[in-house]
Fold:
Amino acid sequence: MDTFEEINVKGFVEEEIDPSLDLFDEIKKLKKEKNAVILAHYYQEPDIQDIADYIGDSLGLSQQAAKTDADIIVFAGVHFMAETAKILSPSKKVLLPDLKAGCSLADSCPPHLFKKFKEKYPDHLVITYVNCTAELKAMSDIVCTSSNAVGIVESLPKDQKIIFGPDKNLGAYVAKKTGRDLVLWNGACMVHEIFSREKITRLKERHPGAKLLAHPECEDVILQLADYIGSTTGILKYATNNPANEFIVATEAGILHQMQKENPDKTFIPAPPNNNCACNDCPHMKRNTLEKLYLCLKNGYPEVTVPMDIIEKAVKPIERMLEISAKLGL
Ligand code: 13P
Ligand code: SF4
Structure:
């Protein structure tokens, strides 16, 4: 088995697993034994989604992390999500199958640079998208997710000046929807910026009945073509409730698993990227595997920790988000 130092370098426990083990059964047993809960994002690989106790978007996952009575939260998602769970439930142990499951969007906003940016706008309220580090959340007034960003901005007085970070695409979408003039940080997600407007247009021509569903982390040129724009949960609900039979999906491809499961007779086509790679798979989300999840539950690490002074500051804007979301009925 690896030493802690080795885990820090690799990001996960590397241990041989008996090939005769049924990992689904083993994980279920360990969960019971350790009073653990598995929370998974829709971008996780299908096996992880199938073993999870709860699958959801960032808002749903935060709500679950705040109310669970488990002793251990195994977060099948990326680092900032596990940090949010730790901030909301500091007495619980939060495990991440691979500590190196990061996020290009969170990385696009280093806290020391954001601090300087914020200082240029002293009379502005700071709203940060949940896809950012705990340190950034600690510098914020309200956190938001893609499902409540518009509602949160609309809940504020019209003359309130606002900085929005780190996602410039979500920020531009919120500004357009609310008619507010937001000061945007110039960050973006590598997965949602890869879609090709030309290829999607051609695909729509070949599938005239298909609806284009897009995540607001996509660029405006893609969002302009969309029939529906929303979070992963929103996209899933729209596909289930809409009578169309074909859908082009402009977000990370992991969501297709639940879409297909809920709608076995409908066709889901991943939106094409502007080259021939499998770029609509998030390389960070896909670092987690069923094997790593099993090993982290068995060994009790890798664990995600957040310094107490950061927890104390970051919990306020997250709780504010949860309060506003509850008022908005989200
Ligand atoms: P949601 O699931 O909240 O829509 O977020 C998408 C995302 O990019 C998470 O990393
Ligand atoms: Fe980050 Fe984009 Fe991956 Fe989501 S899909 S975790 S925003 S890099």
Notes: The longest helix spans residues 308-327.
